[in-house]
Amino acid sequence: MMDLKKCKEYLRIVLAMENEIYKQKRLMEDLQRKIDSLGNSIKIKSPGVPIEDIEEPIGCGWYGCFGLGLIYSCVVFSAFISFYGWDLDSFSFITATGLIPIISFAVFIVKKIKKQQKSFHDSQRRVNEYSQAIDMEKARVAEENRMKLYFQAEWKKVANLNAASRETLDSFYALNVIHPKYRNFSMVASLYEYFDTGRCVALEGPDGAYNLLETESCKARRYFAPTGCRQKESICSF
Asked: What's residue 233's pLDDT?
C-alpha cells in the first residue's frame, strides 16, 4: 500500500496523463472538423445557355440585304412604269407608297438585329462569368486539398501520440492503485484535489477519498435533480 506522498504523486501523474489525453482528443476533433470542411466543391449554377448555341447573329445581315433588295426592286419597278407612259406624279406616288412599308420593315430589322446582338452579348457575358467561376472553384478546391493533406498528417501524428498516451495510462491503471470505478478524468481530478488540499490522507476507509467523493457526488445529484425527485428522496430518507 502506498504512503501519502507516493499516492499523491501517483494521482498527480495519472491526472496529468488524463488531461493530456483529453487535450489530444479535443485537438483530433478540431482537426477532423477542418478536414471535413476542406476540399468540398460547390455546385455553380449554369447560365442556362449551351456554349455551342451562342453564335454571332450573322443571319441578321441577310435580313438587311433582303430589305435593300426590296427597296431596289420597288425603285426599278416604279421607273419601269414611269418609262412606259406613267407620269412623274404616278412614279412619285408609287415610290412613296412602296417606301412606307419598306422603311417600316427596315426599322423592324434594325431593332431585331440590336435585340439579337444584346441577347448574344448578355449570353456570352454569362458564359464567361460561369467559366471564370468554375476556374476559381477548381483553384479553391485544389488549394484546400493541399491544406487537407497537411491537416490529415497532423491528425495522424496526434492520433499516434494519443495511442501512446493511452497505453502509458493503462499501464499506470494496471497497478490497481485506483479502483476501476474511479478511473476517469473527473474522478481522478477530485481524488487528487482531496489529497492536495489535505482533506484526505488515504483512498479507502470512512474518511478516505472514495467515501468523500461518493458523498459529494450524491449531494450534487440531489442538487441538480428535478424538484419532484428531491422531495421524493427527502420523504424516503425518513
From this structure: 46
